[in-house]
Amino acid sequence: MAIASASSLSQIGAAQKIFRRLGKPRLAFLVSSGNLDSVLARFTAAKKVRRQDAYSPGGRMNCRPERAVSIYTKRLREAWGAVPVIIGGIEASLRRMAHYDYWRDEVRPSILVESGADLLIYGMGERQVIEVAAELHAGVAIENVQDVRGTCYRVPNRDYVWDYLELPPYEAVARDKRQFAEAFRLEYRNRILCAGEDSSSKMRRSASCRILRLFR
User: For residue 53, is pLDDT > 70?
Assistant: First the structure.
């Protein structure tokens, strides 16, 4: 796999040429924006531009774009077409569901949809990477990698999933605060059950803990 990380892709301007230098990976591109959300790396909580980036060489600013995961993924698509792209890291993990963007004061869709990636790995990801790589090595198409826990993927409709918990669609949570709160409650509740933290609950623990949000 080729690793497309923030530290190796600082010159985003010459996008396609630079991304072609990576070469075509045998299995997939893995994309991360680094140790910190790329927007938080640029702005403080008071929405002021930072003077230095603690995770860039010499503390230099502007070594990666805002919303780097989405931009890197789109550039890889432009350079390599249908080669599988998998996103992960802190930026992808925190933005895997529809989420409130503090800096733009708006609800944004899942970064999986926004970036156009094929698969999202959230959390630390060590086991997921190994499992996903094994499936791709075995010849499984990236769109059929749907049995690895700790991943998010897109499906055309409900016929492609089973044993799932459905959240309100993005359009609803973007316009209605109550729908946003309900989506967060359902996701958080399901996460607790999957982690086995609520042994007193009478709700059946799902074997796969799938959460479905349809993107229309």
Answer: yes
